[in-house]
Amino acid sequence: MIAVSAASGALGRLVIDHLRTRTKVVAVVRDPARAPAGVPARRGDYDDPAGLRAAFEGVDRLLLISSPELDTARRTAQHLAAVSAAADAGVGAIVFTSFLDADTSATGLTAAYHATERAILASGLPYTIMRHPFYSDAFLPRVAGGELTGSTGGRGLNTAFRSDLAEAAANVLTGEGHLGRAYDLTGPLWTHPEAAQALGVTYREVPDTGSGPMSWINGQIRAGALERRSPDLEQVLGRPAETVVARLLRTAAEPTGS
Ligand SMILES: NC(=O)c1ccc[n+]([C@@H]2O[C@H](COP(=O)([O-])OP(=O)(O)OC[C@H]3O[C@@H](n4cnc5c(N)ncnc54)[C@H](OP(=O)(O)O)[C@@H]3O)[C@@H](O)[C@H]2O)c1
Question: Which of 68, 131, 167, 193 would be 203's cystine partner, CB 3.0–4.6 Å?
Answer without folding.
Answer: 193
